[in-house]
Design a protein that fits this description.
By secondary structure, this protein is an alpha+beta fold. It has 16 helices and 21 strands.
Amino acid sequence: MKPAAIRRKPVEELSLLPASNLAHQEGQASTIGEEASKPFGSTRSSEGAHFSSKSEVHDASEQPKWRTGFWLRFPVWGIVALAATVFCTIAAVLITIKCDNQSTSSWTLSPTVLLSMFSSLSNILLSFALGEGLVISFWWNSLRGSTLRGLHDNWYAGASSFGALKTSLHSRASIYNSLACILTLISVLRGPLFQRAISPISGILATHTGNMTLDFAQNVPATYGAGIGSSGDSTPGTGALLSWQAPNLREVIQGYRSNTNMSMDHPECGESCSTTVKGFGLGVNCTPQKSNAIEPWIDCTGSDPADDQGGCSAVDISSTYFLVSSKLNELDYGSSYTALLILNTTYLPANYTQTMVQGTPDQYGMRDINYTKTLVGKECVLTGGITSYDIVLQNGTVALKYDDYTNDEFLHPIYNNMEVESGTSFTLMGGIALAADYLFSSSATFASSPGGTQYTVNGALANQFMAGDIQALASYDAYWTDPTEYMLNQLRQITFRMALQAAKDNATSSNATQTAAYIGSNTQTIFSTNYYLVAAAAALNILAVVAILPTYYGWWALGRECSLSPLEIARAFNAPLLNGSGFDGSWKQIYNDVGEGKVKYKEMAEEIQGIETSSGMDTRLAFVEEGEKS
């Protein structure tokens, strides 16, 4: 075909031509490398129509030079995009690792938002990198030589996912483009996988440490004790007459008996924490004790006809099998006195021992036989002083961490302010003694007489710690358990409440403010990472990067910046319409050469070579300059 149009001065230009023409005009290249290093085909331009607004003849010296080179044509932005994709992948993996087992509240910007951002950025970067690689792949394959179907498949493999799948089935030449396009498409699944990899889990108990300031009285005023009656004896070593509870003590006892929650603010340690505080408490020193109780029994083997009782002698015997008592004493420390609370417990244990004691027979041969039972008990001396308590703070309340007083540490006693004074003054330890007497005083007594046996049980503890039932009492088989530990733990609760209340009333005078180290815990919602999903998401991204890299092969053989612009491809195929442009320019150079002319895809009449027809003309569709006659 020879288009009838303006003739041009023949000059050497770059174009895509059949291999036979290339071999005839340029000589067959000895190797693929030599052939690829040449332009897209060197030939003389044919005659054809072109935009007339530009110069019709371009001297060779005016054309852009074909310059190849590894670094000269290095695809910087494409490689940067791939490297940035790897960076986004690493950043996403680090986020999933970092947020594992962390509280959701510790993240100002949610990890899922960050992962979404990196995933979206990866999509943009991979699309850009793929586009750059497809351009290089197309022109590299054109330089090496390819069939028209091969050029089409090379382009079609990167044009769409359907094209990639279709060409991958029949075109080995375009397999890298197809694979790159498919894996880039699949890589978008990384976003859901990364976000699904981290999930919130609620109700997790987390711990933290720190220091906090709190108020807990070390010096509780005597106004939290009991008043001393006018007839009270304050002589050291004797019991004092305690007449009434001070109002502050009554409030403490009411809270103890109703078991109301004890409040304490703890904003510094969160929802809950444990710590150790120093405050008023009791030092305990207990000594075991033993005593005997007599159970009467009379041997009536002899007889006296004159005795209405059948000859048996009659005796009255009373025995106490359970007893709890308390009193307030003082110890003299030179010029100061320290009040002491004495707790005494006596009870018949389950494993008691019994000894029979026989009396001397009377004139009738009668004799008393007594059974002596061994009782056990303790005497505990309680001293007021500074005690170290382990406490638990939770939701604005405070409680002792352990139920047993043996977990506390008594540091030292307090002197001077424990003096017992006469008149209407108060004593702190006296208040504790009065509370102990009110709460714990109990007894269980058995009395035997000629008229029968009587038993009397008074007080809560005598009933609470008795083993057996009323029948056991009647048969003298009842026994008790030790109430000492219970009483000491209850007094511990009372003194703890006293120290807490005194700190609230006046933290300064009670020397209450102190700093304590705490271990806090609170219920949190944390992130949990599924590392299998993280690995899958990261693998999709990396596979896409690896698949795109082969499309960059051969960039060093390109002598100019290339694109898949229709102007560049049309010029490479030596389109007559663009004959007025530079021989091997980029699309920008072509556009600058041909100008802003308008084109139209329409039917064109052309002469049919070697065929006789009535008109001698045929038609074809082609891009022509708008306004050109068909």
